[in-house]
Fold histidine kinase.
Amino acid sequence: MTLRWPKIPLGLRLFSLYFVLIALTAYLISQTVIQELKPTVRQTTEETLVDMANLLAVLAEDAVANDQISESHFSKLLTAYGQRDPKARIWEVGKKAINHRIYITNKQGIVIADSWQQDVGKDYSQWNDVYLTLRGKYGARSTIEDPDDPLSTVMHVAAPIYHNNDIIGSVTVAKSNRSVQPFLDQSKRNVWFWMVWMSALVLIVAGLFAWRTHSALRKLEDYAHQMGKGQKAEKPAFRVFYEYDTLSNALEEMRNQLDGKQYVEEYVQTLTHELKSPLSAIKGASEILQMPLPQAKTQRFAANIERESDRMQALIDKLLELARLEKRLALESVSVVPIQQTLSEITAAADARLVAKSIDCTVDATPQQSVKGDPFLLKQALFNLMDNALDFVSPKGQIRWTVRSDATGIALSVFNQGPHIPDYALPRVTERFYSLARGNGQKSTGLGLNFVEQVAKLHGGEVMIDNVPNGVAVTIKLPTP
């Protein structure tokens, strides 16, 4: 058993690829930014602590040199600093306590001043910040206060106190990493927020691009299918995807070449077939006329030649007219066509034939009823319907034009009183060259109703032919202008 890959639309495949790439990129970037955020903040904090420690070391020089730090004004200021309430709000993070701890040691590493007033007199000589600083090196350390709490680490940075170029003590500024954690958390949330929003925006753009790509391919696919079925199809246009527009032009050019060849072959075949009958009649009549005949028979066969010649001329004219119509994909001249006025002109033109057959012709339409389309083509189609009704209406019968309109469109119906169309012929009466015998036994070109159908389709409508009581009704349904 052969396994087949499921058929997934190209647009969905493109979007899935975009989604994976965007999600992976967003995750990697956000993780990198977040991982770099913490050490960057700590480096910035340490740099600030270095400046602060050196400033305090300069300010504390005289008090430490005179061994009067405990009674000095500097010590009082240090104590007051540790007790201040800043009541600050930094980037939506509240700050209600001083997080810096400052302590000063003498040159033996003994704490002689503490802003928190808790470790005065203790020996800090072995702590790296004090130990290294008293030896002229950069002293710093990070100490965890609670092994179970990773946020309990405290960063200590010390600066030497100089007097006469000798180190007489150190100043350490300590800051808990917990105090900067709210800013880290806020930054992480901001990174995730904007990363999600930007990813969503990019995905929306990617989705639109994938949808447009898929829809463009669907248009080309539908266009190719319609061409394959021989249907009229308007070439799709693409403003952004010029490659698709190039392909669309190539398909149209191929269709025109194929259609032209097939069109000529079909018309040559059908024209040859349809011309056989009148040519045979003309040839037979001409052969008979070459023999001695009475005057009456001579006129009869001469009339046959004239009638069949007229039939061939009508066939050729109709074919040329229909060929021009079938090549049109859209209307060239569009205007509002008043129905009542047009039907009045058509019935007036047929007045002689109506009188000759004693036909009662009525028009049920109002001046307000109209359609939007090509006036010439619509009038020609209605002339064809009138001729068709006159050919099949019973002597002293009735032809009735009825126009009905609603919100969806307008329906033009012509009824001719006479025999029904045989059931076998009803689905085929609009086919090219298909015709039924008239009352006089003659057949038409079989192109009239096909022409009417082509005009209706060009206007976005349809033609319906039905047997109704006492006759036949042909209806053209057109959309509302």
About this structure: The radius of gyration is 50 Å. The longest strand covers residues 153-163. DSSP finds eleven helices and 14 strands in the chain.
